[in-house]
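Reply to thread "Modeling small-molecule complexes from scratch"

Following up on the discussion above, here's a worked example others can learn from. I took a protein sequence and the SMILES for flavin mononucleotide and predicted the complex. Inputs first:
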Amino acid sequence: MKTHWNNTALTRLLNLDYPIIQGPFGGGLSTVDLVSAVSSAGALGGYGAYQLQPSEITALNAKIRQQTKGSYALNLWVPLPHQRKAYTLTDHKQVIKRLRPALKALYLEELRFPELIPPDFEEQAEAVIAAKPAAFSFVFGIPSPLILEACRRNGIVTIGAATTVEEGVALEMAGVDVIVASGFEAGGHRPSFLKPAEDSVMSTFVLLQLLKEKVKTPVVAAGGITTADSAATALRLGASGVQIGTAFLACKESGATEEHRAAIFSKVANETVLTSVFTGRLARGSKSVLSEQLKDITLAPFPYQSELMAPLRRAATALGQQHYVTYWMGQAAPLVKETTVEALMKRLISGLSAVF
Ligand SMILES: Cc1cc2nc3c(=O)[nH]c(=O)nc-3n(C[C@H](O)[C@H](O)[C@H](O)COP(=O)(O)O)c2cc1C
């Protein structure tokens, strides 16, 4: 039954039963099973597709469509103006020198120069629009007016992320339909695009309240929300919904590895840090030997740094040295209890129904 808590601008825009968004995950951690389980449960599932080529997005969409009739979002990363920082062979040699102690500790010799051809954002966005998901969500910026207009024409709700009030205002001015207030508690990258991420570290509830004073666009709270009580607080503070990442990542339907899921439920979840060491961009995950050893060292820019660290991640896992690497999770990870979408949704819905 719809009462006031599950009848918000967000549920109306997207035809949802509940004002809950499953935070999309990049890096191969989204799955069709996760998105469809969440969407079929009446919330908004989301697939992080930023690494996919346009044809892969089309194929992915067909698979999600087969598994759910619910609303879901496809999610992309808008290229930052300085994204394509050059990374040369000379840079690579320097970086390898700096990584030498870490490589030695993990019995690795050399790291190959990363040859990367990242997908073209405009072409990815075209594939998303042709797929006509209920929502197109994006981080790290604002797509062009042409793309936003094409979404409007095709009835696709646009969802953009803000880490500061200025970014929220910019999203509203561009005509984006929903703003995700992304607090520093959140797991994964800080999707800042106006100021450096290091200077855009506001908590979820402060950012939510400040944005509510400045914009008329519906705001969704993201970061640190794992329980019905925290979701209820966000709704009381004026959020039209909540976006939950870490708690969905811990569910068996996600693409997280066994080690990653175990880390969320282990002692390492008690201490998370914001680190650029693993991707070249600031992101929150568990504190690790490498997040500390390499924190003051100049490494490769994004996306090269992600490629360089992948073998270290694999080696640490193979050697049973999980404490060497950071596992992405938010500050509220120790509060996560459920391991399936069904159990998590049940706890959220019954808790929210009880408090409202
Ligand atoms: C491993 C990981 C990957 C993520 N990748 C993306 C992404 O590609 N796009 C995006 O919009 N948000 C991404 N996020 C952010 C989540 O969608 C969500 O906003 C965030 O996890 C909410 O905070 P919480 O983890 O405290 O619940 C990611 C988060 C994590 C933990």
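What I'd highlight from this example: DSSP finds 14 helices and eleven strands in the chain. The longest strand covers residues 72-77. Questions welcome below.
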